């Protein structure tokens, strides 16, 4: 569903991504792990078409993202680490705006907005302006906006930051449900426990290089993911 091949990205003379290869398939909950500044957000921004890259190939649903940007965006939902939402809109206005963009018909959108705003405990706040929302509330609204258009690929940058325990629980449940329906989920996280317990596959990036990738159970077969991560980070000196 998301295939990244030989991805190279430079910022000026700084080589930030050095030949990244990742393959996220339908049904995967794929965790992307790495220290601050390792290259997670840069990889994600390249994958969703927010920034250009120097070389390599990225495909979503077997289509090249540069040749078929609209078709790729149609099946993808992306939630950045700091959702930048239209503060002058109310929650309801924003969700309807996103539903319009993705052409979701009235009955379906109403049902989904009701369902997800109930699940994420945001129903009572939907009529308020987004400018009055807390960080966590904005994060929840961004998550609901991503879920209402039934994406085949869900890409999230640090989705659990700022979410309360209840919302965290429901988001994990949503991930599992979506993955059972054949959706592919790719997200970055610093919470190794979440990655170990939730993700069937993981990749660890260090200084723009993938240093470990594969089945979570196989990678963390004899040790916790935290120990493995610490070992991999140690090697850098
Ligand atoms: N716009 C930019 N211009 C120049 N360098 C940048 C830019 N954005 C990111 N970088 C650099 O690219 C590298 C990778 O950054 P990136 O944001 O991808 O890391 P990350 O793994 O997401 O980190 P974090 O866990 O802190 O979010 C860092 O060295 C960062 O300084």
TrEMBL record:
Residues 2-232 form the ABC transporter domain. Keywords: ATP-binding, Nucleotide-binding, Transport. InterPro entries: AAA+_ATPase, ABC_transporter-like_ATP-bd, ABC_transporter-like_CS, ABC_Transporter_VariousFunc, P-loop_NTPase. The keyword Transport applies. This is ABC-2 type transport system ATP-binding protein. It comes from the Bacteria. GO terms for molecular function: ATP binding; ATP hydrolysis activity. It holds the Pfam family ABC_tran. It comes from Anaerosphaera aminiphila DSM 21120.
